[in-house]
Design a protein that fits this description.
328 residues, 15 helices, mainly alpha, two-stranded antiparallel ribbon, single chain, two-stranded antiparallel sheet
């Protein structure tokens, strides 16, 4: 909350900017707000680890938190590289087109893959997972060598697919991080609780500046960061089922966009009254398209509905506390 205004000034001065494309005048704003969140998350995690080390003595279970910190740094760097790739020219600025070029789509999964190495190196998590409707399955060596990299890369890139509205990325992140953090506390999973509640707090600090009308855009540095935090947090906390459930909106978004080879945009068409029409008519390639097909809505309304959808999916992870017979 305190450092974001300073970062906004720095990012604008460095030319790390983007157009707010869902506004009629398309204002040019500082982007890469994920850097601010990363500073908050890392400060929280390292402070916690420091207190545990110097006051209570370094415990073995703190090593997964150090691995999570390393993974976060790697993914944040990839997202920041994507935000750095801007194209400043007179034509784009005059027409209000997005001036961020970004990294090639095929390159992003490859660059986020090294973020799995710290978790693989300490053999984080347990190889036995409870699969809904199937039961416990022991993946053995495939867990650190295959499932951890798939989880990090998949989650980092999936969160990036549902974005582009003021307050959306931070708002949905607040919901699922708080939900997973409370779930971890209720199950005495200290590592997961620390990761998710620290991230929740950092996102609360950012959303003050990112809520409609935004003063800073989150950029890919935030979406990749949040994806890596969810993946690494559920891995070290052995909360894979809960992580998959809260990520269902993004998994569904993945399959919606897969139908057009990920070439569809979430953004709507701006009307004269400032409301948004679905960009592809009745065709739905995103949650946002489905919402805009109900009736023309403002950007703020679309964001709120998507956050409510995330709340509904997050509530699902708590149902087994009340209905133990459920298969998840």
């Amino acid at each position: 909350f305190l450092i974001t205004p300073y970062f906004m000034s720095f990012l604008r001065g460095a030319g790390i900017v983007g157009f707010d494309l869902q506004k009629k005048n398309r204002p040019k704003l500082a982007t890469s707000g994920g850097i601010c969140v990363a500073f908050g998350v890392l400060a929280g995690l390292l402070t916690y680890i420091g207190f545990q080390t110097f006051i209570f003595g370094l415990e073995k279970w703190l090593f997964p938190l150090l691995a999570v910190t390393s993974s976060i740094l790697i993914v944040m760097f990839v997202g920041f590289l994507d935000d750095l790739n801007v194209k400043l020219n007179a034509e784009n600025t005059k027409e209000g087109r997005d001036i961020r070029v970004g990294l090639p789509q095929w390159l992003k999964p490859l660059l986020t893959l090294p973020a799995a190495i710290p978790l693989m190196a300490i053999n984080a998590g347990k190889s036995t997972m409870a699969i809904p409707l199937i039961g416990p399955v022991d993946f053995g060596i495939l867990y650190p060598l295959l499932l951890i990299p798939l989880g990090i890369v998949g989650a980092s890139n999936a969160v990036n697919m549902l974005a582009g509205f003021n307050g959306l990325e931070a708002g949905m992140g607040i919901v699922y991080c708080l939900g997973l953090g409370i779930f971890a506390l209720l199950n005495n999973i200290t590592e997961g609780a620390v990761v998710f509640l620290v991230t929740f707090a950092a996102l609360v600090g950012l959303i003050w500046y990112n809520w409609y009308p935004a003063k800073i855009l989150p950029g890919d540095s935030l979406t990749y960061l949040l994806g890596s935090i969810v993946a690494s947090g559920v891995i070290v906390g052995n909360m894979e089922r809960s992580g998959i459930i809260v990520m269902l909106p993004f998994i569904i978004e993945f399959f919606l966009k897969l139908r057009v080879k990920f070439k569809a945009s979430c953004l709507g068409k701006i009307r004269e009254d400032g409301k948004l029409d679905p960009p592809y008519g009745k065709k739905v390639y995103s949650w946002a398209h489905l919402i805009m097909n109900l009736k023309p809505m403002t950007e703020k309304q679309v964001t709120i509905i998507l956050i409510l959808i995330q709340i509904c999916f997050t509530i699902l992870i708590f149902l087994p506390f009340f209905f133990p017979f459920l298969p998840f």
